[in-house]
Amino acid sequence: MPFNDNEFDLIVSSLVLHNIKPFEKRKAALVNIARVQKQKGQLVIMDIGYETSKYVRILKELGYQNVNIVNAGYNGWWGTPMVPTFVITATK
After folding, report:
1. How many CB atoms lie within 10 A of CB 92?
2. pLDDT tens for residues 1-19?
C-alpha cells in the first residue's frame, strides 16, 4: 500500500479480504494494515467465510490487543447463511 507507516487511527475493511487469494496474500494484507496503523489505532474487519478465524491469530501475532470476533448473524449475511459474515475488532 502506498501509505506511510503509522498513518491511520482507524482502519475499516468491509467484505474485501476474502477476495485476496491465496491465504498467504491475505496474511500479507494484514501485515500491511498493521504497518500503516498508528499505535492505539482501531481496526474493524468485516468479512465472509470461516477462514476469518485465522485473522484473529495473525492480528495477535502482529501485536493487536482486544481482538474479538463475532458472527454478524442473519442481519450480516452476505448472500446466504451458508456463507456467514464475521466482524473482527482490535486495538493496535
Report:
1. 21
2. 789 999 999 999 999 999 9
Q: Would you list the DSSP string of 9-77?
A: EEEEEES-GGGS-SHHHHHHHHHHHHHHEEEEEEEEEEEESTTHHHHHHHHHHTT-EEEEEEE--GGG-
Q: Which residue has the cell 442473519?
A: 74
Separation CA 20–CA 25 (nearest Å) = 6
Q: What is the pLDDT of residues 26-61, one digit of tens each?
A: 999 999 999 999 999 999 999 998 789 999 999 999
Q: How far apart are CA 65 and CA 69, in angstroms?
A: 12
Task: Give the C-alpha separation, 71 to 23, whole Å.
Answer: 20
Tens digits of per-residue pLDDT, 66-79?
Answer: 999 999 987 777 76
